[in-house]
């Protein structure tokens, strides 16, 4: 049994890139492991400055995870800011983090290029993430490919702290990323990585009609209907493969190779498959939304469990560096 830890930012409604890149792994890993999943609201503050929206998305991410089938008895589903120990550990870690490690972070540079102000919170974002991970003695961290560098920095910071203060015994456990190659990058409507910040997403719980409409907008090349097509390189087929049954997927792959299938038809099959795929979760979501008090109970119980786990590690770190 391993300790699993991962977080997701409440900076917008969750989309199918989040599902295949992260949430699906969360669900698979909760079964035989001790899982901690959290809503990263402190992190979201680096890009979202609307208190009402932040509260709303935080609630929405919890409900989305519960609706997708996350079992709050098995996994600890908490909100990052319900565990203030996180920010204390982040400070301890920041004192051993060289500027150069943060300066080379691609996600910081990307975000600044996209127009976010170059603020300290955004710059120090990976240190807060390291605190999230190290605070729970995590073995495995399921994330999408774009988080790989943050996981490397987390290990580097842990090793450095262990080296400076460990005196032979390890203060922090070194975590490993858990990234599935098959779903490492889900393409968005425009062919770029699906991302809230590109406005090219299909949200998990969008209305069925809206999902079908968006699928129609997915960009495709101009290969004519009759021409044979390669399913292995076509992004539209890649998406279809994620949602279709194995039999439907094999049949469509065969028709691609023979020629005679048009992108319009694939899109209409994809829209149907996507709506059907999330239908059971859509029903469960309605139930949770009808009982916000149950969502609040899940949150409170999880905060309690998370804080107890966090306290042990924070005390170890405080003791090691002498702030106690
Ligand atoms: P966004 O880019 O939409 O803001 P986040 O950065 O909040 O998404 O990502 C939350 C999680 O979902 C991370 O683990 C990230 O790697 C994963 N993820 C996001 N977009 C994709 C995608 N297009 N393909 C695969 N995984 C993704
Ligand atoms: N940075 C992650 C993202 O944008 C969210 C995150 C914050 C996270 N803390 C984490 C992911 C700890 C894994 C572990 O997706």
Draw up the topology in text:
Elements: E1 3-8, H1 16-30, E2 34-39, H2 41-44, H3 51-67, E3 76-79, H4 85-94, H5 99-103, H6 106-113, H7 120-123, H8 125-134, E4 140-142, H9 148-165, E5 176-178, H10 208-216, H11 235-243, H12 246-258, H13 263-277, H14 279-290, H15 292-321
Parallel strand pairs: 1-2, 2-3, 4-5
The site of tryptophan has 14 residues, from strand 1 and helix 8.
Explain the overall architecture.
The protein has 324 residues and is mainly alpha-helical. The protein has two domains: 3-185 and 292-321, 3-Layer(aba) Sandwich (Rossmann fold); 206-277, Tyrosyl-Transfer RNA Synthetase, CATH 1.10.240.10. The protein is 55% helix and 7% strand. It has 15 helices and five strands. It has helices at residues 16-30, 41-44, 51-67, 85-94, 99-103, 106-113, 120-123, 125-134, 148-165, 208-216, 235-243, 246-258, 263-277, 279-290, 292-321; strands at 3-8, 34-39, 76-79, 140-142, 176-178. The protein has a three-stranded parallel β-sheet with strand order 1-2-3. Strands 4-5 form a two-stranded parallel ribbon. Helix 11 runs parallel beside helix 13. The mean pLDDT is 95. Bound molecules: adenosine-5'-diphosphate and tryptophan. The site of adenosine-5'-diphosphate (ADP) has 20 residues, from helix 1.
